[in-house]
């Protein structure tokens, strides 16, 4: 591939996709948050006005990131990671509580959410650790160390009661897997999810029965020459313990709102009184957002013409539920386009990551793709009622300075690294 | 291979999302409509309902504003409750009750606090309502009857029921719709078309402004004023004459089919069914199963027509050429088959020809004619069918097709009817000779009878009776301006009309003549029965009278039915003569006759079957004399109903 050597050899496709998403996001934020006439696009009394300012500042950030030397990021990874952990810990002392989560610093009139920035810091750290010549992801010791890098910020964030943001760190699983994590982990992970769903939806007995069938099936009809009996039974016993553990965890450890979301998703609630209560709260949001999307039809009601958006029927629509605005005002064509833009961006990043010559760049690229994908999956899945409610933003789209900047930094460090790959050896 | 995991998951998730979007937005979708969007409040703008005028341009029904005090519970701020309660004339307990009830319904939505204030109450409140936050006044429109008559003609409006709401998308809960009479028949013309305003709501159901600056809003289209064919003076006079009697009067203008008067007695004041008292009064009227004031006797009551039907027998006889005007039949106080008397008759000259047959209302004469008609054909059923078709051509035996929504078919038997009853060909004309004199199986409603007379007065055709004269800027239905011809040739009518003229000049209605007006008429007396304690009991005969005047170029055809009035000329005949004079002359010279009607009541007669005691009929019943009814008693809305019913 022919690239310009004089410094502007960035991947313009990625940048174009980024600009499209940010621009379209801004239009939808405007639609979801305006009240009456729009006096100025920079009206700081409304979210869309603030978002305009955030976007302008984003361009400053992009120029800064691209201006710095590509080696800077690899070299200062430890510092960045350390600062990020400190900023998370600092929340315990100086943090501001918003909606029950201790996740924000108040600086003047602005708020900053360090957990958003921790994502790129952790990504850098993971990339740095894995690309170290002494690291071998196939060994258990290094796997534990790598896991330590992501678990540390995740635990701090959970303690600050922002489980949604912490869940994003699960995305690093894809990175580890790409870099050598054994297949068995994948199998176990899938198995655990299956067990959890079965145990909650039906009961432990059903879960263990299904697990038993799968395990014995695998052992007796698999390619092994000598069927063993001890191993499958041991695994089954573990399954049983895990199932009980999940049940216990669900019943005793999860907070009420988390439990409700899961029970709603799996349709566990049968008590009409309780169901009615849920309908007024969590289900209300979900119901309204689904309804807004459905009412869009094929072509939508038109920009700023959505009746449910204008009527503010979907709470938090300009932040986590922004996709419902797209659904209502731009219809199937518009929302499918947004999904395609995201898929294109993610695949482009993966494609570029695989092209990298340095392992650091490749791992980092994978981190970027994984994190963005996880947000995309959970946010849009939630808005359309496919997965339980988890409040995390849609990258580049949702309203909010911290998230926009953090995702921009995350992406553009990779753009910078990628532009430098021709110089790598 | 490890490279492919994330790649394939991303692709799969992308596809799943698009599939889900497709399901939600394209596959699963009813076409989006602004009207069904519950994010948009639809405020309907009600047009003025059309006025109703009588044929002389007198305003009968207008509108009156009515004011509801509305409120939104959670917007109510602390207020001077005592002063507010005094203004509305309620107690503090009422206030608390209303408030709590509405709050339980919804704290955010408007509820009615006090419905339908009068204009006076409104005037006082209007200036002060601003002081009470959360309260406001909503204007609605009610009917304002400029008259106390014609309840059965004008009808009333009331809230639509669920059945209508489900079947007609125009109507929404709380809308008013015509329920009876003209209000029902001409609902679409009178109501106009509602305007609609689309207002954007937020999720708390509060208004946040016009949707898209109101580009989809429409203005209401006012209802059309209509003129009806009723002559309100004649209608009022008819209702006055029918006080303390049960029955109906229909007067038709033969040259056009316009209904001049349509009286059903007992009636009620239409103002009773307006506003706050409507449902209470309606229930009272509805539950009155003895007088049945809501039952329109002029359109729905089905009685044996009695002797007026004899003129039809005469006409068919002439048309079928089985009798000439000169043929004479003898009458020996009845018609005898061998030695068996099939029907009785009263004293008159005998033998007699057609003219005297009609004038003296001889039963035997018409039985002879009837038998000749039926026996002209080989089989009785064949003859019966011919007879039946002639009768039906006068608009009898089926719905007439007038523009009021209620009615009855009446009954005119044909050959198949008796074949079914007695077995095929197992009967003959002697089995049903009562048909010839309007008893037997023949039944008619007063409006059918009036229409029949109109057809005779026109010498062979009638216009479908109708109540609509003129709809602002629109032609009335062609159906009402096309003549319907009977199967009887024109030349056969003259002798029959002459016979009806002689009813007044020496016949059974001799005492009812009105000097200066050539009236043709026919008396009728119909036996009737009622089931009392499971026993078929005969009651005093119905008094029936049909007439038209003048003899040439008739202006009015009338049928009067007075239940249990005994013989034709006794009540019905007098009323018919008075109505005709009132209409043609515009004033009453027959004051003695008028006095007689206004001082005689039949309430006694109607009470008999419910007394639980044995009672005599016809000859054994005494006339009930009452204090003279005056017009004032009618004008006063409190006493428009007979004294036995006390309405508020």
UniProtKB/TrEMBL annotation, chain A:
<feature type="transmembrane region" description="Helical">
    <location>
        <begin position="229"/>
        <end position="250"/>
    </location>
</feature>
<feature type="transmembrane region" description="Helical">
    <location>
        <begin position="184"/>
        <end position="217"/>
    </location>
</feature>
<protein>
    <recommendedName>
        <fullName>Cell wall polymerase</fullName>
    </recommendedName>
</protein>
<keyword id="KW-0812">Transmembrane</keyword>
<keyword id="KW-1133">Transmembrane helix</keyword>
<feature type="transmembrane region" description="Helical">
    <location>
        <begin position="396"/>
        <end position="415"/>
    </location>
</feature>
<keyword id="KW-0472">Membrane</keyword>
<feature type="transmembrane region" description="Helical">
    <location>
        <begin position="79"/>
        <end position="95"/>
    </location>
</feature>
<dbReference type="InterPro" id="IPR018365">
    <property type="entry name" value="Cell_cycle_FtsW-rel_CS"/>
</dbReference>
<dbReference type="Pfam" id="PF01098">
    <property type="entry name" value="FTSW_RODA_SPOVE"/>
</dbReference>
<feature type="transmembrane region" description="Helical">
    <location>
        <begin position="146"/>
        <end position="172"/>
    </location>
</feature>
<feature type="transmembrane region" description="Helical">
    <location>
        <begin position="12"/>
        <end position="32"/>
    </location>
</feature>
<feature type="transmembrane region" description="Helical">
    <location>
        <begin position="330"/>
        <end position="351"/>
    </location>
</feature>
<keyword id="KW-0133">Cell shape</keyword>
<dbReference type="InterPro" id="IPR001182">
    <property type="entry name" value="FtsW/RodA"/>
</dbReference>
<feature type="transmembrane region" description="Helical">
    <location>
        <begin position="363"/>
        <end position="390"/>
    </location>
</feature>
<feature type="transmembrane region" description="Helical">
    <location>
        <begin position="53"/>
        <end position="73"/>
    </location>
</feature>
Automatic annotation (TrEMBL), chain B:
<dbReference type="Pfam" id="PF00905">
    <property type="entry name" value="Transpeptidase"/>
</dbReference>
<keyword id="KW-0378">Hydrolase</keyword>
<dbReference type="GO" id="GO:0009002">
    <property type="term" value="F:serine-type D-Ala-D-Ala carboxypeptidase activity"/>
</dbReference>
<keyword id="KW-1133">Transmembrane helix</keyword>
<dbReference type="InterPro" id="IPR012338">
    <property type="entry name" value="Beta-lactam/transpept-like"/>
</dbReference>
<keyword id="KW-0472">Membrane</keyword>
<protein>
    <submittedName>
        <fullName>Penicillin-binding protein 2</fullName>
        <ecNumber>3.4.16.4</ecNumber>
    </submittedName>
</protein>
<keyword id="KW-0133">Cell shape</keyword>
<keyword id="KW-0961">Cell wall biogenesis/degradation</keyword>
<dbReference type="InterPro" id="IPR017790">
    <property type="entry name" value="Penicillin-binding_protein_2"/>
</dbReference>
<keyword id="KW-1003">Cell membrane</keyword>
<dbReference type="InterPro" id="IPR036138">
    <property type="entry name" value="PBP_dimer_sf"/>
</dbReference>
<keyword id="KW-0121">Carboxypeptidase</keyword>
<keyword id="KW-0573">Peptidoglycan synthesis</keyword>
<dbReference type="InterPro" id="IPR050515">
    <property type="entry name" value="Beta-lactam/transpept"/>
</dbReference>
<dbReference type="InterPro" id="IPR001460">
    <property type="entry name" value="PCN-bd_Tpept"/>
</dbReference>
<dbReference type="Pfam" id="PF03717">
    <property type="entry name" value="PBP_dimer"/>
</dbReference>
<keyword id="KW-0812">Transmembrane</keyword>
<keyword id="KW-0997">Cell inner membrane</keyword>
<feature type="domain" description="Penicillin-binding protein transpeptidase">
    <location>
        <begin position="247"/>
        <end position="576"/>
    </location>
</feature>
<feature type="domain" description="Penicillin-binding protein dimerisation">
    <location>
        <begin position="46"/>
        <end position="208"/>
    </location>
</feature>
<keyword id="KW-0645">Protease</keyword>
